Amino acid sequence: MANLSLNTNSFYDSTSSFNVTLAILYSLIVVIGLLGNCFVITIVGKTRSMITPTNILLVNVAFADIISLIWCPIPLAINLSGKHVSGRAADLICKFFTGYAVTCLTVSVTYQSLVVLALERYYAIVKPFKQPLVASNKSMYYIVGTIWVMAIMSSLPGFIFSEYDEQSRRCLDPWSLEKACKIKWLSVLTAVSSAFFSGCVFFCYFQILKGIFINRTVCSAETASSLHAAMNEKRKLAITSFTVTLTYYLCYVPFLTFEIYISFQSYAAILENYEVLYKAYRIVGFIMYVNSCLNPFFYGFQSSSYRRHFKRIFLNIQPMEGINMFTR
């Protein structure tokens, strides 16, 4: 058993075509994702009219995505090099750099931000005359701070259980193939909490889309002259917000499903099928990171307001003023 465990390291430091291809793909999403998310943050930061509750949340997502993209190549690069710091500092480096605990933190920030975004859009679009979830930009800043505090607390197991393994000469975190089956409660707890909040998210978007496309009650209080324009803007808002959230699920669910699967496999079964599981682990992990690259395209390039201010800031083109897509 010990020899089998030691041999698994060869999959991680191998310059196989699979690992090299993966490294190239990671490089692409890091470059594209960092540029896209930095553009989004810059556009909102330099445009006073863009600083709205919705955009504050989207900037928070962009900031979390930037951290994810900066950290994601580190474990892969260290594993490919086959050189990890050992000794007393190994565990500390594992917890903050060569493991995926930081990714757990940023994924949690993104997810909580999308939950709040769904609730904020629900109150702003479906129930505009009731007390909104977020009344001002100031309150949204407090919510963003709360999101980070809760994300840090929920990601503590990732930092606590990440440690350097002398035998395999790798950093093993709670999501690694060797450890997931021993800490299955973490995957189960993550799945249960995700299912609960997912129900809230999809309820909000179901009500939004139903109000816009089915019973058309969302803009019922608008005047006849502004009804068409308001309906189009709210449709864009709903579709863009829903697209960002749906993309997150499409990128994150494969990883969560895989982790639940290996959590309930025996250690011997994992070792016996290690090569296949290793490739699956790498692929679903890559798909999860792709979400950090795609977000700017969905809520940036689909928004006429983002495009207009992008031209103004980066291309020095002064377009005509238009409707801000992300206003209440």
Task: Give a structural overview.
- This protein is an all-alpha fold and 328 residues long.
- It contains 15 helices and 2 strands.
- A hairpin with a 4-residue loop joins strand 1 and strand 2.
- The longest helix is centred in the last third of the chain and has 40 residues.
- The chain is globular.
- The N terminus and C terminus are likely disordered.
Widest β-sheet, arrangement of strands: 1-2
List the uncertain runs: 1-6, 221-225, 321-328
Number of strands: 2
Question: Alpha-carbon distance between the termini?
Answer: 60 Å
Helices and strands, in order, run as HHHHHHHHHEEHHHHHH
- Helical fraction equals over 70%
Note the quaternary state here: single chain
Which structural class is indicated by helix and strand composition? mainly alpha
By DSSP (H or I, 4+ residues per run), the number of helices equals 15
* Estimated radius of gyration: 22 Å
Average pLDDT reading: 84
Relative strand content? under 5%
Largest sheet: 2 strands, antiparallel
Outline type: globular
